[in-house]
Amino acid sequence: MDEPSPSSLHDPLYAPSTAFDSQSLHGKAAIVTGSSRGIGAAIARRLAALGARVVVNYSKDQQGADGVVAAIHADYRASPPHLASSSTNASTSATLTHSAPAPDAPESPSKQSAMDTDSTPPPKADVRAIAVRADASTIAGGQTLIRAALAAFGRIDILVLNAGLSGEAKVGTDGTMADTDEAAFDRAFALHVKGPLFLAKGCAEVMGEGGRMIFFSHLATRKSTILPSYVLVAATRGAGEQLSRTLAKELAPRGITVNTVTPGLVDTPGMRATYSEHKISFLAGIHPGGRLGTPGDIAALCGWLCGRDASFVSGQCIQANGALVV
Hints:
Family: Belongs to the short-chain dehydrogenases/reductases (SDR) family.
Number of domains: 1
Number of helices: 9
Region (Disordered): 80-124
Helix content: 25-40%
CATH superfamily: NAD(P)-binding Rossmann-like Domain
GO molecular function: oxidoreductase activity, acting on CH-OH group of donors
CATH topology: Rossmann fold
Radius of gyration: 20 Å
Strand order of the largest sheet: 4-3-5-2-1-6-7-8-9
Shape: globular
InterPro entries: NAD(P)-bd_dom_sf, SDR_fam
Number of strands: 9
Keywords: Oxidoreductase
Structural class: alpha/beta
CATH architecture: 3-Layer(aba) Sandwich
């Protein structure tokens, strides 16, 4: 390929992005499913730190979601001035909670309540995040998230489909083929395939150029040492990867990127609840890098994928596992 001439180096094509221009998400709004703790919470805080307003989604853990929202507002008050809007009153914060009915109950319009330290609702411009209860495995739950984001922020630019079942969690949705029943099958496909597809569809209807969608997968789709107990996780996460690839083709003409992130072994509350300290130490010890991943490792990758520098990265399944699986 011909080298660029000296004069062409002044063309914007060759001009490097500034850190602020390439990474800032100022003015954008994001939905992060399953973000009351762990990786999802880290992603929500990362996107907010880059300037985005964020819908923190939860299914059961309202306390965790409210904590993430409070942390985002605290981070915002301490953030550099270039991330703040001109109308922001840095002394004000709020946690807004939208509640959806139980999955088997009819959907009703989301209700909003303010719960801040001084009981004074902040101006709308000062609300950097809201907590929204919704079952991300259902179409109705996805619609609740979309309505809440549009009501609070007036737009949707970023969708991170983080909600999912751990391959290790014994919640009746994984096991060998012999252990799998129809209810487990339906639950896994709803959370990893059906819900993400229809939420992505709804967001795509209102998302403009520069939009970003991130699906999540699992190491079970890549490991050669896969265990029989991963039958549903591998099948459904693999299906999600294919959704991401095909949606990337469909949405590319509109300037919207779609990618999949596959985390490795990440030290999360879910892992701590599943494994003993001895097992966690063992897993860290056999890792090429000598450590487990952190939620921040995954959040940093997602933050980059949502920025301007990643505008030509789409349709990819990106593994973040520290060389554990290559």
